[in-house]
Amino acid sequence: MAPWLRAASCALLMGFACGAHAAPEAQAQHTLWELHGKHNTVYLLGSVHVLRPADYPLAQPVLDAYARAKALVMEVDLDAVDVGTLQAEMLRGALLGDGQTLESVLGRQRYERARALSQELQIDLADYDRFAPWFVAEMISQRQLAAQGFAAESGVEMFFLGKARHDGKTISGLETVQDQLSLFENMPLAMQSAYLLSSLEEAQQLPAQLDAMVHAWQVGDGSWFTAEIQHEFGQEPGLYDSLITSRNRKWLPKIERLLNADDNYLVIVGTGHLVGHGSVLELLEHDGITATQR
């Protein structure tokens, strides 16, 4: 999976383990949707988990949604995350078993391909020889994103987390740190290997992809994300289900319960969860709940 997709959709916590311009105010739509309960409004905001300082300020409708919400809901309650503990848990889960190496897991042909691609990025794959392919993919992706000026500290979640802390708003999560880490730790090694190779093969196109991603996100262009996700996951439907749709199905009852409350909520999830087949919006529509894009 290309690093840009992680920035927009997956592996939010990985940014803690290791340009485009802001959209004009006059734009008609954003990656923001409204759901209406009997007594409240639930705002669904598609996130880019890592951004650059130059990608701010956020659009006014997005800021207004936050202002109207009494509580903030994210994929994970980042207010409760201890970075040191997260790093330790992640490293424990990333280490290969006794006698295994990255080369033995990938196999000779895949390893040589991965090593050649890594060398083009000036990365020595031998530095990661004791780690599972999913972890190697994440670490290399974080390096690539950082080289382009992207950081989790500048991402949408961290921006609103800081505001919510300052404003005393309730903060909660749809899943736990362990839920997110288990997505990768339980991934079959063959799928992990494909995951690593696809990330490396997309590396040369990364700068252009990231600029296009930020622009599409700023103007609420869901069709761009849908097309890119179809391209990325077309050969790996199991990976798509594991990282996207199965999580959407688990989140759905929690989001729908928010519509029975009296207070307004701002729910922030990766943009990839709000577009395409099996998206949160599609599942809500199936349940008779209409979402209006703002």
Total number of strands: 6
Shape: globular
Distance between the termini: 29 Å
Largest sheet: 6 strands, mixed
Widest beta sheet: strand line-up: 4-3-5-2-1-6
Question: Please, how many domains?
Answer: 1
Order of helices and strands: HEEHEHHHHHEHHHHHEHE
Poorly predicted runs: 19-27
Structural class comes to alpha/beta
- Beta-strand percentage? 5-15%
Describe this entry's structure for a reader:
- This protein is of the alpha/beta class and 294 residues long.
- It has helices at residues 3-8, 60-68, 83-94, 102-106, 108-120, 133-147, 156-167, 177-185, 189-201, 206-218, 222-233, 237-258, 280-286; strands spanning 32-36, 41-47, 71-76, 170-175, 265-270, 292-293.
- The chain has a 6-stranded mixed sheet with strand order 4-3-5-2-1-6, sandwiched between helices.
- Helix 3 packs parallel to helix 8 (177-185) and helix 6 (133-147) packs parallel to helix 9.
- The longest helix has 22 residues, at 237-258.
- The protein is globular.
- The two termini are 29 Å apart.
- Mean pLDDT is 89; it is low at 19-27.
Give me some keywords for this one:
6-stranded mixed β-sheet; alpha/beta; 294 residues
Q: What's a quick, concise take on this entry?
A:
The protein is of the alpha/beta class. It is built from 13 helices and 6 strands.
Give the arrangement of secondary structure elements:
Blueprint: H1 3-8, E1 32-36, E2 41-47, H2 60-68, E3 71-76, H3 83-94, H4 102-106, H5 108-120, H6 133-147, H7 156-167, E4 170-175, H8 177-185, H9 189-201, H10 206-218, H11 222-233, H12 237-258, E5 265-270, H13 280-286, E6 292-293
Parallel strand pairs: 2-5, 3-4, 3-5
Antiparallel strand pairs: 1-2, 1-6
